[in-house]
Amino acid sequence: MLLLDEIQTGWGRTGALMAYMDYGIRPDIVSMAKAMGNGAPIGAFCATEKVASCFGAGAHGTTYGGNALACAASYAAIGEIIEKDLSARAAKTGTYFRRLLETLPHVKEVRGKGLLVGVEFDAPVAAAVKQGAIEGRLLVTALGDRVIRMVPPLIITESDCDKAFAILKAAAEKAYAADE
After folding, report:
1. Distance between CA atoms of 115 and 79, rounded to whole angstroms?
2. For the residues of 88-101, what is the DSSP string, one character each?
3. Would residue 134 be called left, alpha or beta, if left means φ above 0 and alpha means ψ between -120 and 50 degrees?
4. What average pLDDT is seen over the chain?
5. What are phi and psi of 73, to 5 degrees?
6. Which of 27, 28, 126, 165 has its CA 20 to 30 A from that of 158?
7. At 136, is the pLDDT very low, low, confident or very high (cuts 50, 70, 90)?
């Protein structure tokens, strides 16, 4: 049995509706949340008919299930993602953004898929880059001491990427100047 967690990677984030769809596999169960509610607390899973037949009434519960407001938000969010093909947009814009990020000073590696992006620096400056980005009004996450992670909205534009790059470049330059 193959169970895939698409809680962060699903609903267009990686450039496919679900990340697994780019790899030619067919899971038995897929868990999902986050983007499907566009911030509203909701989670779900899908299962093959064979697996679903193992669940009887009361066999599965959830802390985020059954809320009418969250379900309406999810219905609207998923409709927008599909109707506006935000998966394809995430793939295109993510490629553009990652190429920009590769030109940041002291970058060891830029990794990711679609709009799930990580930047690894060649020195332990992630916290300082994060702080500089925040001062520039850009939210990023520091993972360890060398990596920042970004998960921009699916509707980000290339112009937005250019602005984010400028903020990150200034933050990285400041972080490295302070590190010397």
Report:
1. 19
2. HHHHHHHHHHHHHH
3. alpha
4. 93
5. -65, -40
6. 126
7. very high
pTM given for the model: 0.89
Q: What is the pLDDT of residues 113-125, one digit of tens each?
A: 999 999 999 999 9
> Tokens standing for 96?
């553009």
Instruction: Give the full edge-to-edge strand order of the sheet including 141-143.
Output: 107-113, 116-121, 147-150, 141-143
Could you give the CA distance from residue 2 to residue 130 in angstroms, rounded to a whole number? 36
Kindly give, in sequence order, each residue whose CB lies less than 8 Å from that of residue 98, ignoring residues fewer than 6 positions away: 110, 112, 117
What tokens were used for 9?
A: 């990677």
Render 82-141 in DSSP notation, one character per residue: HHTTHHHHHHHHHHHHHHHHTTSTTEEEEEEETTEEEEEESSS-HHHHHHHHHHTT---E
For residue 119, the model assigns a pLDDT of: 98
Q: How far apart are CA 61 and CA 141, in angstroms?
A: 31
- Check whether 89 has a pLDDT greater than 90: yes
Q: For the segment 10-48, what is each residue's pLDDT rounded down to a tens digit? A: 999 999 999 999 999 999 999 998 888 888 888 888 999
Q: Which of 1, 111, 89, 86 is nearest to 36 (CA)?
A: 86
**Of 117, 104, 160, 167, the residue nearest 138 (C-alpha):** 167
Tokens 């669940």 -> residue = 55
